[in-house]
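User: structure tokens for this one?
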Amino acid sequence: MIEALLPATAVAVEAFADEPDEPPCPGEEDLLARASPGRRREFVTARRCARQALARLGYAPAPIRPGPRREPLWPAGVVGSITHCDGYRAAAVAPAAALASLGVDAEPHEPLPGDVLGVVTTAGEPARLAGLRAGDPGVHWERLLFSAKESVYKAWYPLTGRWLGFEEAEVTLDPAGRFTARLLVDGARSDGGPPLRALDGRWRVAGGLVLTAVVVPSDSSLFARPDPG
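Assistant:
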């Protein structure tokens, strides 16, 4: 499902269930030493998805260790992102020659808890959400906004090495399945690329899930796939 939101240069693998008692990849066992059974299962399945996606790019199986903010550390020459929620795990990767960065997120298509909304929105977003709800009450727009900002952060961090708070990106959701995040902080990149001022993404609701994806292209070519139905 999430692959439809990504350019043709990216590879995505997803899973809708965990394999009982699946062991972690050698080299990742210590990461789960204190994990609950549920956390262990989601980690193992999501990392398996990531290795399967990397295999489609020609990479041999290897542990995927976390970085300083728990972000996956990909092989040289690869960008990628991992997401998981109840009943869904996915990973997406792409050659760094094609994409500078990539972020994906999945959330249950359910209302966002009321106490979370005030934390994740900027001043202008609640009014826009109200308008979207009036136009299409079948979409949980607040949850979609949350997911979009998660994808924005996952695309932002590898290029800047800096935290990005929910309040530091103002997202405009398009009912047609796209969104734009205007960055409210300095977008200087650690890789010397052009500063990040806005990030574009896609979204869809399918299978009881909200799915979002953001890519930062390495050149002027962006989405090669048609809009998801």
